[in-house]
Amino acid sequence: xxxxxxxxxxxxxxxxxxxxxxxxxxxxxxxxxxxxxxxxxxxxxxxxxxxxxxxxxxxxxxxxxxxxxxxxxxxxxxxxxxxxxxxxxxxxxxxxxxxxxxxxxxxxxxxxxxx
Amino acid sequence: xxxxxxxxxxxxxxxxxxxxxxxxxxxxxxxxxxxxxxxxxxxxxxxxxxxxxxxxxxxxxxxxxxxxxxxxxxxxxxxxxxxxxxxxxxxxxxxxxxxxxxxxxxxxxxxxxxxxxxxxxxxxxxxxxxxxxxxxxxxxxxxxxxxxxxxxxxxxxxxxxxxxxxxxxxxxx
Lengths: 115, 173
Known about the structure:
With 115 residues, chain A is mainly α.
C-alpha cells in the first residue's frame, strides 16, 4: 500500500516494542532501496532524506516517502495525453523556462535597486 | 525579448546538433509533459544526464562552449574540457559539471544520480522535438521516482505540489 509522500512513519520517544520493530523495518527498507538504486533498479520505493545514515536510522528519524499510487496514476494519465505524443514540438517549454528565469533575474535586480 | 540563440534553448539545441547522448531529467524534464505554460514549474536550471562516457562528456562540453557556455565543477572553474584524464576523473566520481551562459542559464551536466542510471532511462525515454532537433526526456514516472529518492525537503514538497496540480487538472478535464 502506498504511504503518503513524505509521511513521517517513525517517531521519537521511548519506543515500545512495536515502534522499535517498525523503525527497524523502515531502516531496512530504506537501506534496501538505496542499495537497489545503486544497482539501478526501478524497484526503489522507500527512501531517506539526504544524510540518511545508519545513525539517523537507529535514532528513528528516517522518513519514508513514496510516490503514491495516485500520483503514478496521474502521471500515466498525463503521459498518455495527445500533447505528449513522441515527436511533439516542445520548443515552448524551453522558451517558457528561459522567460521564467529572466523574469526571476529582473525581479532580483529590481529588489536590489529598491533597497 | 529573449534571443533564440541564448539560454536553455540554445544549450539544448547545441547538444542535440552535436549528437550528444543525453536525457533530460529533473523538473526541467518533468515540465516537458505539461499541457501548457501555466502548468510548468519554475526552475532555475536544467538537469541533463549524459551517457557516462568520456567522449560524450567531451562532445557535450565542446558543443556548449561553442554556444557560449562556461563551466564549473565543485565551485571552481572547470577548464580541462579537452583533457581526457580530467574528464575520466569527473566520470569516475559521478560528478556534475555546471554549464552557464551569459544570460545566467545553467545546465547541470550530470554523469550519475540516484535512480538515474542512463541505461535505465534510455530504455524508454520519450523523444520530443525542439525546432529541427530531437531531445529525449525520461519517462515521467521515473523522474518522479528520482525526486522521491533524492528525498530532500524541496523534492518532497515538489511531489506534493505536483500531485495537487495533476489532481486539479484531471478534475477539470
